[in-house]
From TrEMBL:
Domain annotation Glycosyl hydrolase family 32 N-terminal: ranges: 97-400
Pfam family, one: Glyco_hydro_32C
Signal peptide: 1-23
Keywords: Glycosidase, Hydrolase, Signal, Vacuole
Keyword Transmembrane helix: no
Cellular component annotations (GO), alphabetically ordered: vacuole
Family assignment from sequence similarity: Belongs to the glycosyl hydrolase 32 family.
Alphabetized GO MF terms: beta-fructofuranosidase activity
Major localization class: other
Protein name as catalogued: Beta-fructofuranosidase
SUPFAM superfamilies reported in the protein's UniProt record: Arabinanase/levansucrase/invertase, Concanavalin A-like lectins/glucanases
Amino acid sequence: MVLPNILAVLALVCVLSKNGVEASHKIYPRFQTLNVENVKQLHRTGYHFQPPKHWINDPNGKPIQQEHDRFHGLQFFQINPDFDCFMCVNWFVRAAPMYYKGLYHLFYQYNPKGAVWGNIVWAHSVSKDLINWESLEPAIYPSKWFDNYGCWSGSATVLPNGGPVIFYTGIVDEHNSQIQNYAVPANLSDPYLRKWVKPDDNPIVNPDASVNGSAFRDPTTAWWAEGHWKILVGSRRKHRGVAYLYKSRDFKKWVKAKHPLHSVQGTGMWECPDFFPVSLSGEKGLDPSVMGQNVKHVLKVSLDMTRYEYYTLGTYDKKKDRYFPDEGLVDGWAGLRLDYGNFYASKTFYDPSTNRRILWGWANESDAVQQDKDKGWAGIQLIPRKVWLDPSGKQLLQWPVAELEKLRGHTIQLSHQKLNQGDHVEVKVTTAAQADVDVTFSFPSLDKAEPFDPKWAKLDALDVCAQKGSKAPGGLGPFGLLTLASEKLEEFTPVFFRVFKAADKHKVLLCSDARSSSLGEGLYKPSFAGFVDVDLTDKKLSLRSLIDHSVVESFGAGGRIAITSRVYPTTAVFEKARLFVFNNGSETITVESLNAWSMNKPVMNVPVKS
Ligand code: DQQ
């Protein structure tokens, strides 16, 4: 964990030198209100969510479910006596007006005036399928004393009386002093929820004297337990990351609990906490208020100091309002990650129309801020992912939502393709810059796996990837995909496996290495990587990569690991981009099966007709 440690120290110095006032995002005052005239199309994504121009960050709120599906929900809880959820039943019985004609609502942090962070509002788009998006006017923007300096991140909760309520962080002065507010729809009969009202009895939560008021933000979705609604607010006490817990009987008067739900020394500010139950069996998602024996809880935090996230699985003691991570899990920098690449401020929600829990994450740019200003846009939302608990109970699994497959067009297939050391074989998909690739590799044995250097145990996987890379010959691997590649491989983003033999077991590294992604200058090109806990008995490894002009979002070993890279090729663009499978290891690899689809463009940013 060399990198996070260095980053942690640098970030702490930075925070302390600002007298503890935290801004969370870098501030470029001269670019903040430069309205963009010409948006550059190069590197804009084809099927990932982006507004037409300017800066975006955190996905906020949560989608609203489809009308007919409340009955599925009710049935689910009634036939599942293992789940203890008194309010859930009431919730669904009294749910009638809270479903908005089958629309998912995405709220996200947005600068309406420029391509860098600033002037933050809650922008708002709606979708019937999580893939095609229509746009609306911003739902929440600074307009009252309690949010005049900014409307930062938060969440939505759907109440038993049928109304969604948004909790968000209001910034009240130029020192970034933070309080928690609420907003409600002006007209519950409008399925688009166009207008939101911020009642005058705001804020709902003020930091008391024991709380650091400039590090106190991002309220979670509420859950119901032991006669109270509960939410978390992210914070820090000196260097300790904290998730404060607030309780309410009526959703209006909120009181701080005696103890935080959880806190960890040395992790710094916890942004965008997310706390949710997962079922111990199967892939179905759960409403936030579901508890009981067949449930485990997940606590995810976004670490401002490293700009990475980590999560633990554990037990929620609803009486004591404490969360205990499972033994053996790392509760800190080196913990499990939802994504080992460019992925931050993520948020999950329960979608009862399909009984899934869905995860949204934001990927920022990896180019220079001047380049963002010139191209007129910055930031994308990643493809929503279904998340559920691995049968081992030791990690989460993730997969892009099935609706994405509607965009698949022309397909190229490979099967039983042998790859000897040094081979790279082109996959002639029509649009290699905008594609979905799903491949399974196999190998005859594990014998040629290289030894795992014990010194690497102390390193971040990213550093191991930087040492070994995709070009250096290996034993079992490196093998995988060369995405966004130019014809002669002057530019390419390899996504690949390397298998090592450690003292007691094999270790599988998945890398998404941006170092060779571009001949351009001023870019951040990290060798993102993670180790995958996967059973190699069947001698197969699978990889799915969503390639979209300047993003490569990859899922290894059936969703046991995800890594996102942002890259900016100069020649491997549009129709000049190519896709290859490759192997630089001495063990022969077989492409058992490969499907590569050209991806069509969804509807994006079409204004909802009034
Ligand atoms: N972004 C928001 C904050 C949050 C941060 C401000 C995370 O509320 O902590 O735009 O990216």
